[in-house]
Amino acid sequence: MALFGFEKDTLLDLTVNVIPLGIILFFIAAFAVVPAFGTDPVFTGMQFALMISMFLLLAVLTYYAGRAIEGAEQEQESLEEASAVNEPEGEVTGLEDGDDAEAELDDASADGDDE
Amino acid sequence: MAAGDLVLTGLMAVLLVGIAALLTRIENWRSYTPLAGGGTATGETVVHREKPAGIVRWLTTVDHKDIGLLYGVYAVIAFAVGGIMAMLIRLQLVTPGGALLGANAYNSILTSHGITMLFLFGTPIIAAFANYFIPLLIGADDMAFPRINAIAFWLLPPAALLIWAGFFLAPVTENMIEPAQTAWTMYTPLSVEQTNPGVDLMLLGLHLSGVAATMGAINFIATVFTERAEEVTWANLDIFSWTILTQSALILFAFPLLGSAIVMLLLDRNLATTFFAVEGGGPLLWQHLFWFFGHPEVYILVLPPMGLVSLILPKFAGRKLFGFKFVVYSTLAIGVLSFGVWAHHMFSTGMDPRLRASFMAVSLAIAIPSAVKTFNWITTMWNGRLRLTSPMLFCIGFISNFIIGGVTGVFLAAIPVDLVLHDTYYVVGHFHYIVMGAIGFAAFAGIYYWFPVFTGRMYQRTLGKAHFWLSMIGTNVTFFAMLALGYLGMPRRYATYQFDGAIAPLAQVQTYHLLATVGAVLLFVGQLIFVWNVVQSWLEGPKVEDGDPWDLERDGMLDREFQWFDRKLETAVTDGGEDEEQSALTGARSDD
Amino acid sequence: MEEQPGLSDQYRMSSPWPVFVALGLALSEIGVFIGLFPVAVFGLILFGGSVAGILTESGYATRPWPTLVGIGVLLAVLAALVAVLQLPTSAFTLANVGEGPLFTRLVAVVVAGAVMVAMGGAGSVAEQTKV
Ligand code: HEM
Ligand SMILES: [Cu+2]
């Protein structure tokens, strides 16, 4: 699957923002189908403008953030492949390789149940 | 009047001459070389150490760590001031007739409490952590613009003096200048009509604090974008930096707007413009402008604390943050959506019902990203190897309080519910669960977690735990009672509540007020312990010798800032214990 | 030049200017908005001077004087512009200084601008003749 050119993993991450997008979409549809307070060119216009603009802004930001993160990930992967040392780094940590080695031993047990 | 002007002129002249003389004494501005960065290539300038000694160091520093500490001290002082104001409010309300204050004094203190806590404690305490740790976490030497960083901080002390000015000036001016009584929202027409110059001073103070926040935000954005170390990419940028980046973007859009609205208000007050007058823009214009800033402001205050919790909680759960990317994307989502919900503060103003409905829609959507984070934190702890240290306790308290604060927020975002509860204590309970129960708690978690880095010493753990439990119980007693008061129909911002028993059950209302005050006393005692603990441990606590005081290495979670701390401890030992740190870059040169 | 290294040459992580930039801005705002003539003038001068100083110190400008003149001109022109656009010509009288709320404030800004121009000019002349 390559929706919008994202990898499957990234798409999965992005679902988190699809939910608020969905809620906004739901309300757009609901208010369009049932205009409970009647319609008025100015106020109905503003009503939909607010929801649609929020939808678009969120969609665009999510898209570009996804791009940036996926791009950085791919770059990192290719770097790691190039340097034969294939040591997966913690997402948040940037441990230096040197003093990592001895920690590795007792790390193994703690890491085991991680993901 | 003329005599006053003369005195003022004289004072200003003396000040200016004094400053010029001082500057020529300590600074040789003829020797500036055209090179940026000070004394780089010129042989004659000797760089002995990085900073001068004593108080001059703190007044002239442009080091992000020093500035972070300054922000921290400033915020804690503001927290103490705001906290004493809060105690006065709570003590006042133990009896329906008001126990200590007159109505004017109550209104002044209520106004200053809100503004102090949001602008002088909340924003600066976040800036404290951000200044100290963002450069360390992303592997930068310093902020992108160290001098702008210092300017931003030094705008805050005058801002505080201006915001509190009425309290100092009322006694000496025979109440010509009083503290503002506008409430923190400064709604027009009230805020235009109060002729008290104290309001102008407060507005100027707010304006300065806004300028400071904006300068800081520009600096953080530039730093995160341009100063990252090579191996720090968008894919492995830590979560705190992400939240600060998003927060800074929000500040960039929100604070300049507040600044402009404040200037408009000042012009209305002093130069008879009609921006917010009925014949001009109308009083509701203020509410729209204020809340277009005000709602993003609440997320400006809560996003970085969320980042702190996301950073600290995993360290004591022995597991990586569950769904790291979920947290990143939902941070960004909150950032965007927070600009589309402002009118949920105005549901009862009689605005067009169609517009109102759309603000409700976006407000409900914004609850999702917050909920996602909550689930991520809970899942991170699931099956983890929990260590209930003080920072961890505060993180867990954060989650618990944030859930109550968030859920009450979602209720309020539903128009029919809000029409009943608006302007009652329910709203006060809602946002205090977040500003005290969550933001305050995250700040404590950060202070305890990094206490060894700030001070090189360890705090007293038992006192830390006492602080937590008093705060946790105090928060929940106080603010849950407020939720109940809201359901009973108690309106907010009143100095007294001697109403007719037919409107609301007075006896119960008084009981809940009493409960809230009892909770506040617990909170207060807790904070006394906190201050004692910080001050005493800073001076006499046991020195930290291990660069990894939390034993994070074991789970492979030693972040850059603790690695830096470790290096600092090691160099300090081999160099014979000089207390200024030597960054890798300058170490070689200045060791001559 | 006689060498006596200043604070920011001596210490890499120090600069005396930020405090004064902040103080200058705060005083200018109080002076202009509350309408305190002397505070406005001195605040603006302090602000302009410190900005000129900090830009020179951090290497964005070689000498402070042109910046000082620039800020002075900018302030004076802006204030004059507001005055022309917002006030009737009849308000432009010496007697009106200290009376009309807007006019007084604008005069304060113009005066501050003029002083900065003078200071900047004097500074660069003095420097050129000395060295
Ligand atoms: C979960 C998302 C949230 C929702 C849906 C929400 C909703 C609301 C609503 C509808 C109100 C207006 C109540 C009224 O005046 O009738 C309100 C008030 C308030 N909220 Fe929230 N809120 C949320 C999160 C937050 C957060 C994170 C903060 C603080 C950091 C916060 C701080 C405040 C404040 C300060 C007020 C009161 C403003 C005032 O009238 O003085 N809220 N909230
Ligand atoms: Cu809001």
Automatic annotation (TrEMBL), chain B:
Q: Which residues cross the membrane?
A: 6-24, 67-89, 109-138, 150-170, 201-225, 237-267, 298-314, 326-347, 359-379, 391-413, 433-454, 466-490, 510-535
| Pathway per the UniProt entry | Energy metabolism; oxidative phosphorylation
Q: Does the keyword Transmembrane helix apply?
A: yes
Renumbered residue ranges of the record's region Disordered: 573-592
What Pfam families is this protein classified in? Answer: COX1
- Keyword Membrane present in the record's keywords: the answer is yes
Subcellular location, principal: membrane
Q: Which GO terms describe its biological process?
A: aerobic respiration; electron transport coupled proton transport; respiratory electron transport chain
Q: Name one GO cellular component term.
A: membrane
Location within or outside the cell: Membrane
Q: What EC number(s) has UniProt assigned to this enzyme?
A: 7.1.1.9
Membrane topology, record value: Multi-pass membrane protein
- Keywords in UniProt for this one? Copper, Electron transport, Heme, Iron, Membrane, Metal-binding, Respiratory chain, Translocase, Transmembrane, Transmembrane helix, Transport
GO molecular-function terms, A-Z? cytochrome-c oxidase activity; heme binding; metal ion binding
Question: Where do the Cytochrome oxidase subunit I profile domain residues begin and end?
Answer: 58-550
- Which InterPro entries did the record assign? Cyt_c_oxase-like_su1_dom, Cyt_c_oxase-like_su1_sf, Cyt_C_Oxase_1, Cyt_c_Oxase_su1_BS, Cyt_c_oxidase_su1_bac
What protein family is recorded? Belongs to the heme-copper respiratory oxidase family.
Please report the name of this protein according to its UniProt entry.
Answer: cytochrome-c oxidase
Lineage, broadest ranks: Archaea, Methanobacteriati, Methanobacteriota, Stenosarchaea group, Halobacteria
Automatic annotation (TrEMBL), chain C:
Which residue spans traverse the membrane? 20-47, 68-86, 106-126
Q: Which UniProt keywords apply?
A: Membrane, Transmembrane, Transmembrane helix
Among the Pfam families in the record, one is DUF7541
Q: Which InterPro entries match?
A: DUF7541 (IPR055963)
Its domain of life?
Archaea
Q: What is this protein called?
A: Cox cluster protein
> Which species does the entry assign this protein to?
Haloarcula rubra
